[in-house]
From TrEMBL:
It holds the Pfam family Sulfotransfer_3. Keywords: TPR repeat, Transferase. GO terms for molecular function: protein-tyrosine sulfotransferase activity. InterPro entries: P-loop_NTPase, TPR-like_helical_dom_sf, TPR_rpt, TPST-like. TPR repeats lie at residues 282-315. This is Sulfotransferase.
Length: 678
């Protein structure tokens, strides 16, 4: 009996172990005492030894914990709980070697547990085993892809149930606060909700926790691009390109960042490398064509685009890229191939997609080059109707916004707001409508030794959009109230933000630079508020010629007003009205370049232009086509040759079909370049 009573009952031991385990997090000292008492009753009991190690670690005694856990792991090398605790104790004690060994054993036994992989990755990185760490992060992500909670949250997100997805992820974060996969998914939920700041914060944290989480870094790059944080995007793209899991898509996203930064040559090199490995990639051929066109290598660009349509004859954007070179004329064989491509798409049930409308624009240009004007107009009209159906543009709503802007920036308002803003004279804004000659003006000025040509920069539009959001969110009754609230310090801060954000595009060290974003005509008042010494040039072209040229041009993005003749005519009227209002409120602040006058008297107009900018005359401005620089707009080839006169009255060939445009323009079409009587 005496010996029997000395052996504790199994049920009582299990109960004691469970009680001790329950105390671990809140009262580790009590858990330690109970575990030691159990060991006195049942020596070398593994669960009690594990509890002692767990309690010691929680009490901040990792070395003591390690002394208990290491021999336990040697005796029971296949128990995951022991290996997990040993790894954490060794990590806390600074013994990375033992922690890594424990985690490597654990992840071999339980490869489907993400936490082990992520902890292993962090430890491997501390000892310089970066490649192995990267693979461990990737294994952790792969394991997390089977997590039921994450799968449920992802399904809810994809079905548009964003609140449900967020609730699932929040509950999961309470249990696993440092889980990279859950944090990245919450970032995507926030992005879909429209909360960009929260999205960025979550995805940046996911990448910080698991630097080898390639899909999270890829998503982060795309978010940074959306926020125009180009240098950060490039830094992450360079890291992603070094992933041990080679993915050509990562090279493509790095190339896209380089394109946004204006480094076309580096992007070209990436595309050529990808094609050397696999030449049957039409999308990469097309991207290469874009880079080569921007660099002025027209013959090589033509070859790249033709390779794209050879590999995929229905690739409408590549056909349009060929046609859009302006100096290239598509022949009868091209016409036949494009017509067959439309038939192929129709047989496949594709009658409205991007390939279809691109092919119509391309066929329009091909027929126009052949002087088959009616057929050309028919294709242009078909392409525009398809494109217009895909976008939102409310001409009446836009006109109301423009009228409100004109009312805001009155002469008394401008006089009252004379102080403030960033005094930097660096920026030269070229505004107007697309296809109005702004690229020609840019190329002339970029040929001057004191002026750097950049590209169409989005920074001013982003600042304006951010200010407008304060109105939309109810902080101010209208834009006028918001603008009036800006203190001199506010305006200086915004101007300095613009100068700093655009610095990434300035490579030459020249004192002045060009921002050729045509749509900035909507923001001339704001520009002068925050950058009072900036120069603004309004590039203007005959309304019929400018609007028709814009209507038959498919733009890669934006310009939603160009896909309907009435819409674009009304837009031109709004533009003229706002610029006239600003001229009256602040005479002489904007310099106007009339395209037809620039063509007729280039030296005189260039002289006037340089005088407005306070620049000495330089002969290079008259031989602008010899200036070697990247040009991304639709006029890239035209500005690489002397002044082109053929486009001045080109629209008259199509006048029989342009009545809707003429009606929308009204008297503006007849009084140009003067304004019609009020």
């Amino acid at each position: 009996m005496g010996n029997a009573s000395a052996v504790p009952a199994t049920d009582s031991i299990q109960t004691a172990l469970a009680d001790a385990a329950a105390l671990l997090d809140a009262r580790p000292e009590a858990a330690l005492a109970q575990a030691e008492a159990i060991l006195r009753r049942a020596r070398r009991l593994p669960p009690a030894e594990l509890l002692i190690g767990q309690a010691l670690r929680r009490l901040g005694k990792p070395k003591a914990a390690l002394a208990r856990l290491a021999p336990l792991a040697r005796q029971h090398p296949s128990v995951p709980a022991i290996l997990w605790e040993l790894a954490q104790a060794a990590q806390d004690a600074g013994d990375q070697r033992q922690a890594i060994a424990a985690l490597e054993s654990l992840t071999r036994q339980q490869p489907g547990v993400p936490g082990g992989w992520f902890l292993l990755a962090g430890l491997l990185r501390t000892v310089g085993r970066d490649g192995d760490a990267w693979r461990a992060d990737l294994s952790g992500v792969h394991a997390a892809s089977r997590d039921r909670d994450l799968l449920a949250a992802a399904m809810a997100m994809n079905e548009g149930r964003l609140d449900d997805a967020a609730a699932l992820l929040t509950a999961r974060a309470d249990r696993l606060p440092d889980d990279p996969a859950g944090i990245r998914l919450m970032g995507e939920v926030q992005w879909r909700r429209g909360d960009m700041n929260a999205a960025l914060a979550h995805v940046e944290r996911a990448v910080a926790l698991a630097p080898g989480f390639d899909l999270a870094r890829d998503f982060l790059i795309r978010l940074l691009l959306q926020n125009n944080r180009l240098n950060e995007a490039l830094a992450h793209a360079e890291i992603l390109a070094r992933s041990p899991i080679h993915n050509p898509g990562y090279d493509l996203i790095r190339a896209s960042v380089l394109v946004r930064l204006g480094d076309q040559d580096a992007a070209r090199s990436i595309y050529e490398s990808l094609l050397a490995d696999r030449p049957d990639q039409p999308q990469v051929w097309q991207n290469l064509g874009h880079a080569l066109k921007t660099l002025g290598r027209q013959a090589d660009a033509v070859h790249a685009y033709r390779q794209a349509v050879t590999h995929r004859p229905t690739m409408g954007e590549a056909w349009w890229s060929l046609a859009n070179l302006k100096t290239v004329k598509l022949d009868a064989d091209d016409l036949a191939t494009m017509e067959r491509a439309l038939e192929t798409l129709a047989r496949d049930g594709q009658t409205e997609g991007e390939d279809v409308f691109h092919l119509h624009f391309s066929l329009g240009k091909a027929q126009e080059d052949r002087k088959a004007d009616e057929a050309a107009f028919r294709h242009y009209d078909a392409g525009n109707r398809l494109r217009r159906a895909m976008i939102r543009h409310d001409a009446g709503e836009f006109s109301a916004e423009v009228a409100a802007t004109a009312t805001t920036f009155s002469a008394p308002f401008i006089a009252a707001m004379c102080d403030g803003g960033c005094p930097a004279p660096d920026p030269i804004f070229i505004v107007g409508l697309p296809r109005a000659g702004s690229t020609l003006v840019e190329q002339i000025l970029a040929s001057h030794s004191q002026v750097e040509g950049t590209m169409e920069l989005p920074e001013m539009m982003m600042i304006a959009s951010r200010l407008q959001s304060r109105v939309d969110e109810g902080e101010f009754a209208d834009f006028a109230a918001m603008a009036a609230s800006l203190t001199p310090a506010d305006r200086r801060r915004l101007g300095e933000e613009y100068v700093e954000q655009t610095r990434v595009h300035r490579q030459s060290g020249k004192p002045r630079f060009i921002d050729k974003m045509p749509n900035n005509w909507q923001h001339v008042g704001l520009i002068k508020l925050i950058l009072p010494n900036a120069s603004i040039i309004d590039a203007r072209r005959h309304p019929m010629g400018c609007c028709f040229s814009g209507w038959k041009q498919h733009f890669a993005r934006g310009q939603a007003f160009t896909y309907d003749l009435t819409d674009i005519g009304l837009y031109y009227r709004d533009y003229v009205a706002l610029m006239a209002a600003y001229d009256a409120a602040a005479p002489g602040r904007v310099h106007r370049v009339i395209y037809e006058q620039m063509v007729a008297d280039t030296p005189g107009e260039v002289d006037r232009l340089l005088a407005y900018l306070g620049l000495d005359f330089e002969a290079a401005c008259l031989s602008f086509w010899q200036t070697d620089r990247a040009v991304r707009t639709a006029s890239s080839e035209q500005v690489r040759q002397p002044i082109y006169t053929g486009g001045v009255d080109h629209w008259r060939r199509f006048e029989p079909w342009l009545a809707p445009l003429a009606d929308a323009l009204g008297p503006i079409a007849h009084s140009y370049p003067d304004l019609p009587p009020r």
